[in-house]
Amino acid sequence: MKREDYLSWDQYFMGIALLSAQRSKDPSTQVGACIVGENNRILSVGYNGMPSGCSDDEMPWDREGSPLNSKYFFVCHAELNAILNYSGGSLTGATCYSTLFPCNECAKAIIQSGIREIVYLSDKYSDSESTRAAKMMFNMTGVRYRAYEGRDRLVELHL
Q1: How is 80-126 classified by DSSP, letter by letter?
Q2: Which of 36, 45, 49, 98 registers the highest number of CB atoms within 10 A of its CB?
Q3: pTM, whole model, 2 decimals?
Q4: How far apart are CA 106 and CA 79, in angstroms?
Q5: Which residue in 107, 93, 104 sits closest to 40, CA to CA?
Q6: Phi/psi of residue 32, each to 5°?
């Protein structure tokens, strides 16, 4: 008889996004993303961080201050990194699992790449103009978004 308490696909893919977020060096916000294609195949992952070649030790990580002395002009978001990390061709019809609801800039990349669904863990910036703009664009283009509902399961290994 097979085991009954295995992870759902949503739990599995959000777990991959959460694990990816742990690679982020951002001291205040760690975000991970996992892009999944048809037949539940992982296509790409990403996390928020500085662009390749930009030293994590030399770039600013502050949330406050002038634009050139804070992280916001420099950090590449998890969803965009996951899109850019994919080298297999089209992402049309894919689903993106993200630990944080995508911003407006990532929403544009998501739409342009052909991703059709977002599953998000947190929407803590739901009142921000960036998130409201992202939802407006998703609604206009038919990109579905839904909150992750598998929070009742702690992922742990039983050996």
Answers
A1: HHHHHH--SS--TT-EEEEEE---HHHHHHHHHHT--EEEEEE-TTT
A2: 98
A3: 0.93
A4: 6
A5: 93
A6: -130, 155
Measured CA to CA, the distance from residue 83 to residue 115 in angstroms comes to 9
Sign for the CA dihedral angle at 84, 87, 90, 91 comes to: negative
Find, among 115, 128, 100, 111, the residue nearest to 36 by Cα: 115
Task: Give me the residues paired with residue 37 across strands.
Answer: 41
- pLDDT tens-digit series, residues 115-142: 999 999 999 999 999 999 999 999 999 9
Q: Which amino acid is at 27?
A: P
Catalytic residue among 38, 79, 117, 129: 79
Nearest to 140 by CA among 151, 132, 150: 132
Give the span between the Cα atoms of 43 and 54, in whole angstroms: 25
Residue 4 per-residue DSSP state? S
Find where tokens 């998890």 sit.
Answer: 78
Is 79 marked active-site? yes
Q: pLDDT tens-digit profile of 9-23? A: 999 999 999 999 999
